[in-house]
Write a structure and sequence with these properties.
With 702 residues, the chain is of the alpha+beta class. Helices cover 32% and strands 14% of the residues. Helix 3 crosses helix 4 (49-57), helix 15 runs parallel beside helix 19 and helix 17 (534-547) crosses helix 18. The two termini are 51 Å apart.
């Protein structure tokens, strides 16, 4: 590595000074203002262009001494090229009155108070603020606070109760005078100070979220419950309902989803200012119990805390966790960015490299679902990609006497296995091209028609090529990772056909990184950290849900966001009115990408099989069953410590299953009597499903 003196000498050729490291977007702005390319900066800092890109999109940070040199350079650039509007802001701040010495809880700022002279981006009038003690019960311990943004002083969301109290993040309580939905929308946009900044420099700010309790819904003229034959989350207010008429009369609009549990009310944006408010109605089952356990029954202040932490670490909720998971992908990889038109010199909207773009893309026929127009209209009969999670139980006849005498069956659940599979996953970004008899290339994402029936694997392990673990019997379509694993096992593969994509990229990288950080940080809030020994880890996991129910709910929501977001990439048609062959609404979005979903699941399943093989080689142990990301082993004791492989030093053996809080590592999921499990297996019992409670499939969401 270059010395500090060499790095400083290179940087001084560009500029000299010394600051704190600014945000990623500001780093890119300063470099562009100086007219320095990423490649030139990389040369000066003795690093790679990709590293510079990572620093400027927030995916990584430089380490010393490179960090110090980079800071020195950015400080000099900041002095030469201040941010637009910085001088105006400084002058306004200098002329502002001295800060009030009153306690924060006693200050009241009303919409009718005299306003300072309006400047370019003056904040709107704010509602009255009451002390946090106005909450129905004392606030629970706080998670890390979100970064302050002067445009959104009251955070991303509020929970509105029937008495007009709007409970926000960090214990704040606002007075909301609205008595109708229209008044609520206008109050939210003009006075509430709610919202959240964009997650990517080319993205959009998050719209404010107002969560309505049952009492608030009734006060605003909404029914307390939605009733009907369909699932409540699928129901909508009829177009003739008085509230819907009020919204339309006030020239506001509803999205095509209508006025349901998650309603978006908007007007066309004025310039850069969005006019959109997201509503979530608790008594209409907006917060699904599976994804948000116990949250709907919490007090408003606690609901605000749960949703606020989720908004800070993941994204402001915009629907179910599946919808939020999908929206997070787009928020982190916006489809467009500002580009300069070479003909006119004007800045226009252009494609953002690495994104999925703005237009939907039809899949290859084997990647589609049977009801997709690509299949129906072409009469495709060539088979489909079947990359799904494991659902396998070992045949009872393959159990040894020794295994049958072991007293326990222990389940190991891989922490967010599908999130771990999304890391550094290269996927296709362009339309598929059809090839006949191509040479297999493990670096090209796509779907391959290949015969893997000749590959012999130990029958005590599931086949890595099929979800049910049975050996293939004929040529079938597989995703690239599955075929590459066949090569890894030492077998020759000769594809007959393939649908491949020429443009590729790690589209899910920022999505993985943000959700991984959210998951690890939330576990740490519950007392489960990376520094724990395996014994301490198991103890902490056993009681983590009791440490803080609110943070445990956030953790559950993060996990549901991962699975739901991946499942939503292949959302199937919904509703009784759908007819086969018609295009359903999900097909109109660029994120309807079943091939990306297949890539994640294929990689996760291959990762699991690799660990199963390594475990068998190191310990001679074979699983009883595998369901999705849960593996069940026979064990002499009721702990995974009784059978996981450890070196003489006490450290876990690499390659097999390891305990830990990081995505991809394992935790104890359940313990059952081995003899009881074996007896029930003969009756078709799946010990993995029993231990997991059946919650292991990738939900395709609402």
């Amino acid at each position: 590595m270059a010395s500090e003196e060499e790095l400083f000498a290179s940087v001084d050729a560009l500029l000299n000074e010394e600051p704190h490291l600014p945000p990623p977007a500001e780093r890119a702005r300063l470099r562009e203002a100086a007219g320095i390319t990423q490649a030139r900066l990389a040369t000066a800092l003795k690093t790679t262009t990709q590293s510079v890109k990572n620093w400027e999109n927030g995916r990584s940070e430089p380490k010393s001494p490179r960090l110090d040199a980079y800071q020195r350079l950015l400080n000099g650039w900041a002095a030469k090229y201040p941010a637009p509007g910085a001088a105006a802001t400084a002058s306004v701040a200098a002329s502002a009155p001295a800060a009030s010495t009153e306690p924060a809880g006693s200050r009241v700022e009303t919409a009718d108070a005299p306003q300072a002279p309006v400047v370019a981006d003056a904040a709107p009038a704010r509602p009255a603020i009451r002390p946090a003690a106005a909450s129905r019960r004392p606030a629970m311990k706080k998670a890390a606070q979100p970064a302050a943004d002067s445009r959104f002083p009251h955070g991303p969301l509020a929970v509105l109760d029937g008495d007009g109290s709007a409970y926000g993040v960090d214990g704040i309580v606002l007075d909301c005078p609205a008595t109708t939905v229209v008044e609520l929308v206008e109050w939210t946009l003009r006075e509430s100070g709610l919202g959240a900044p964009k997650l990517n420099r080319y993205g959009k700010d998050s719209d404010p979220l107002i969560v309505l309790t049952a009492a608030a819904a009734v006060k605003l003229g909404l029914p307390e419950r939605l009733e009907g034959h369909e699932q409540r989350r699928s129901l909508r207010l009829p177009e003739g309902h008085p509230v819907v008429k009020q919204v339309v009369k006030a020239q506001w609009r509803l999205t095509l989803r209508g006025f349901g549990p998650w309603a978006r009310i908007y007007r066309k944006a004025q310039g850069r200012e969005r006019q959109c408010v997201q509503l979530a109605i608790l008594s209409w089952d907006a917060l699904d119990e599976r994804s948000w356990p116990g949250v709907a029954e919490m007090e408003p202040a606690d609901i605000a805390r749960v949703l606020g932490v989720y908004a800070q670490r993941v994204i402001t909720p915009r629907g179910s966790t599946a919808v939020s998971g999908l929206e997070l992908m787009t928020a982190l990889r916006p489809p467009t960015r500002a580009v300069q038109d070479p003909q006119t010199g004007n800045w226009v909207s252009g494609h953002n490299p690495g994104s999925l773009g703005t237009e939907p893309m039809d899949p290859a026929p084997p990647e589609a679902t049977p009801e997709h127009p690509v299949v129906v209209e072409s009469g495709w009969t060539g088979g489909f990609l079947n990359e799904e999670a494991y659902q396998w139980v070992r045949d009872v006849s393959l159990l040894t006497d020794e295994e049958c005498t072991l007293p326990y069956a222990v389940g190991l659940d891989l922490n967010t296995a599908f999130l771990a599979a999304a890391a550094r996953l290269v996927v296709g970004l362009s339309a598929p091209d059809h090839f006949h008899a191509p040479m297999f290339n493990p670096k090209i994402p796509g779907s391959w028609l290949v015969d893997l029936s000749h590959i012999d694997v130990d029958p005590r392990l599931p086949s890595p090529f099929t979800p049910d673990g049975t050996r293939p019997t004929e040529p079938a379509w597989y995703q690239t990772h599955t075929v590459a694993y066949a090569q890894e096992l030492g077998y020759n593969v000769a594809p007959l056909e393939a649908y491949l994509r020429r443009e590729t990229g790690a589209y899910l990288d920022p999505w993985h990184d943000r959700l991984k950080e959210a998951y690890v940080d939330t576990l740490a809030d519950l007392g489960v950290t990376k520094e724990l020994t395996d014994v301490e880890f198991l103890t902490a996991m056993e009681r983590h849900k009791d440490v803080d129910p609110a943070m445990a709910a956030v953790l559950a929501a993060i996990k549901a966001t991962v699975k739901g977001g991946i499942g939503k990439l292949r959302e199937r048609p919904q509703g009784r009115k759908y007819k086969e062959g018609e295009r359903w609404p999900a097909l109109q979005r660029p994120t309807w990408r079943p091939d990306i979903r297949a890539a994640v699941i294929s990689k996760a399943r291959v990762n699991t099989h690799r660990k199963l093989r390594n475990m068998a080689m190191m310990t001679g142990l074979y699983p009883l069953a595998v369901l999705s990301d849960c593996v069940v082993y026979p064990s002499p004791g009721d702990s995974p410590l009784d059978f996981l492989p450890y070196a003489a030093s006490g450290k876990p053996q690499p390659g097999g299953f390891r305990l830990g809080s990081t995505p991809g590592l394992a935790k104890l999921e359940g313990v059952q009597s081995m003899l009881w499990a074996v007896d029930l297996m003969e009756q078709g019992y799946n010990p993995a499903r029993h231990i997991k409670g059946g919650d292991a499939v990738l939900d395709e969401g609402e």
